[in-house]
Design brief:
The complex is a heterodimer of chains A (210) and B (407). Helices cover 60% and strands 10% of the residues of chain A. Chain A has 210 residues and is of the alpha/beta class. Chain A has two domains: 80 residues, Methyltransferase, Methionine Synthase (B12-binding Domains), Chain A, domain 1, CATH 1.10.1240.10; 121 residues, Rossmann fold. Chain A is globular, with a radius of gyration of 17 Å. Chain A has a five-stranded parallel sheet, with helices on both faces. In chain A, strand 3, helix 7 and strand 4 form a beta-alpha-beta unit. Chain B has 407 residues and is α/β, with parallel strands linked by helices. Chain B has a seven-stranded parallel sheet. In chain B, strands 2-1-5-4 form a four-stranded mixed sheet. Classes of the chains: A alpha/beta (210), B alpha/beta (407). Chains A and B meet through helix 4 and helix 7 of A and helix 4 of B.
């Protein structure tokens, strides 16, 4: 089995140690960082597919995300040195007042595996921090997460902050989380709503094409 | 109807205060009896005003490890409430509130309420994990034999609940297997073992023997404690062992909005043996019904829940995938009591109109009530910020329904 085939299988199996070793071996064998990315993307697509059809659940997704990240950590500096551009840059976080981050972490991992450069601001993120980071890092996408009905309203506050800063038209904003609906997303002026981690990647790809 | 008998069928303290005002009950600060979710205690006057049929028995200590007693005043962002003596907080420069295990300000805080939130979420305090030194005993620190004070408290609480004449739901703690809200060990000053939420989920896949060891021992301790409680209730001047109608055993969530946290096969391997054992003890030795809480899309687990010996399902999250109320009633109505399901607390109740609330409540009651096996309760605790007009619309609707039928 080639190093990239081993890497692909390790990501699908959620084996981060094998994923890291295979990545190092591939790089040592002069495989380009972009070829590694081109291996990770379909591997994470497969993980997303298995999640969507309920072969995989949260623990398996977390393990695959960990394996993918172990590989990305090795190749990220090489990509930067080579001046390679990601498909798009996304700023992601759980909105102000909300500390829940598992759903957000899964979406972040799926986006990263989907070829996006992900800037993860964590949980309980103030609107101005989303705005400042998106502007400073020239992000094309902003992804907002919330688990609670009481914090969901921070999504609107955050979108309003982009308007107030005069950069609303510079970014696409997608939202998701347990209490969030398509209808709510539209009512607060979001550009899209994703019901699951897999749907978030499809949505993100659609939004950056617009 | 139930509101307030367990920590998963209650109301945020702000909702309790608003309802007391609405019904014109004496103005008094509401007691926060569960500090994580900031649940308000439903006193008998409000229970009567709302038409509630069930009261609760709670453990002596809450999930932050201090007794729910010794009430003191506290200003909760403008609302005067009462909190237990051990409820001690500090405020961060950002305005977040920190809550401390066992009320000990010298220990690392175990709960955080960000500015803009209305609940204390667990602060994960995960010591570095050394695979070769992981010891299941580290994840069992919070599970142990009940102290004499715990048994005294339970006997007093059951006696008071029985004397009230209401139905009695009791939760004694310690029998929730892998409840992710409890995994971080918020009651402990320096938790050891696997305490990070993601690490725990991953461990259900990669460290199964460790999880089995934790559940195995927790199950033994849980049954021993239930046996001591039962014996104590039998031994008093009045035999109170039959005073409990329903035992809230486990709050571990298996469902998400659209899917599940694990496969049915994993559930049957990792959880089913322990649920079977503890439920079998309850059914063999008591008249108590076994109550299982699990949010989300859990239809796939219901045959296993029934096989495990659970009698009651809560909160019956009808908004989740595969949780169609009519299908649930048709398939499981003869074998499970639906305790919940009456109205959505993520969408309709907090954000709908009173008319929408009424419609949803009437439709759900029409589905769940026929033939019995339905305890009217919202889908999980009433959240902060729920308009009181919508709560009243919910209560009016069930009265309207009861005018033509019986729950």
């Amino acid at each position: 089995m080639s190093d990239l085939e081993t890497l692909r299988q390790a990501v699908i199996d959620g084996d981060w140690k094998t994923a890291a070793n295979a990545t190092r071996n591939a790089i040592a064998a002069a495989v380009t960082p972009m070829a590694v990315i081109n291996c990770l993307m379909p591997a994470m697509d497969e993980v997303g597919r298995r999640f969507d059809c309920e072969e995989y659940f949260v623990p398996e997704m977390l393990l695959s995300a960990r394996a993918m990240k172990a590989s990305m950590e090795i190749i990220r500096p090489l990509l930067a040195a080579a001046g390679a551009a990601p498909s798009a840059r996304v700023v992601i976080g759980t909105v102000k007042g909300d500390l829940h981050d598992i759903g957000k972490n899964l979406v972040a991992a799926m986006l990263e595996g989907g070829g996006f450069e992900v800037i993860d601001l964590g949980a309980d993120v103030a609107p101005e921090r989303f705005v400042e980071t998106a502007a400073a890092r020239n992000a094309q996408l902003v992804a907002l997460s919330a688990l609670l009905t009481v914090t969901m309203t921070s999504m609107k506050t955050t979108i309003d902050a982009f308007r107030a800063a005069g950069i609303r038209d510079k970014v696409k904003i997608m939202v998701g989380g347990a209490p969030v609906t398509e209808q709510y997303a539209q009512s607060i002026g979001a550009d899209g709503y994703g019901e699951s981690a897999g749907a978030a990647v499809t949505l993100a790809r659609k939004l950056v094409m617009q | 109807m139930d509101f307030g008998s367990t920590t998963v069928t209650g109301m945020h303290v702000s909702a309790v205060a608003a309802l007391r005002d609405y019904y014109g009950l004496p103005r008094q600060p509401v007691k926060v009896h569960e500090p994580g979710q900031m649940l308000g205690l439903v006193e008998d006057d409000l229970r009567a005003a709302m038409g509630i049929d069930v009261t609760g028995v709670f453990p002596r200590k809450n999930k932050f490890g201090f007794p729910t007693a010794g009430w003191k005043e506290w200003n909760f962002r403008g609302l005067e409430v009462l909190v237990p003596a051990g409820f001690r907080t500090t405020t961060t420069p950002e305005g977040d509130l920190l809550l401390y295990p066992q009320g000990d300000l010298s220990a690392p805080a175990s709960g955080r309420m960000p500015l803009g939130s209305a609940f204390f979420d667990a602060i994960v305090r995960q010591p570095e994990i050394h695979e070769d030194r992981l010891d299941p005993a580290d994840n069992l620190e919070e599970f142990g034999p009940l102290a004499a004070e715990d048994l005294d408290h339970i006997e007093r609480s059951v006696a008071a609940a029985h004397a009230s004449g209401y139905g009695v739901a009791a939760g004694f703690g310690g029998t929730s297997f892998g409840d992710i809200a409890l995994v971080p060990g918020t009651s402990l000053k320096y938790p050891r073992g696997i305490r990070d939420v993601e690490e725990w989920y991953i461990s259900t896949r990669t460290r199964r023997s460790y999880i089995h060891s934790v559940f195995e021992r927790q199950c033994e301790i849980g049954i021993q404690n239930l046996a001591r409680i039962h014996a104590r209730l039998q031994a008093g001047p009045q035999d109170l062992s039959g005073a409990i109608d329903c035992l809230y055993l486990c709050g571990a969530d298996f469902g998400t909005q659209t899917s599940a946290f694990c496969s049915v096969a994993t559930f049957r391997e990792l959880w089913l043996p322990y649920y079977k054992r503890i439920n079998a003890w309850v059914h063999a030795n008591t008249s108590w019904k076994c109550f299982k809480h699990s949010c989300g899309s859990v239809e796939r687990f219901l045959e296993s829940f029934i096989e495990a010996g659970f009698d009651v399902l809560n909160p019956v999250q009808c908004s989740a995938t595969g949780m169609d109320p009519a299908a649930l009633k048709r398939k499981y109505g003869g074998r499970l009591v639906f305790w919940g399901g009456a109205v959505d607390t993520q969408k309709t109740l907090p954000f709908g109109t009173p008319g929408e609330v009424r419609e949803e409540v009437l439709r759900r009651a029409e589905i769940f009530a026929p033939g019995g096996g339905f305890v009217f309760n919202a889908i999980h605790n009433l959240q902060a910020g729920t308009p009181v007009a919508n709560i009243v619309a919910m209560l009016d609707a069930i009265q309207e329904f009861n005018g033509v039928s019986h729950v």
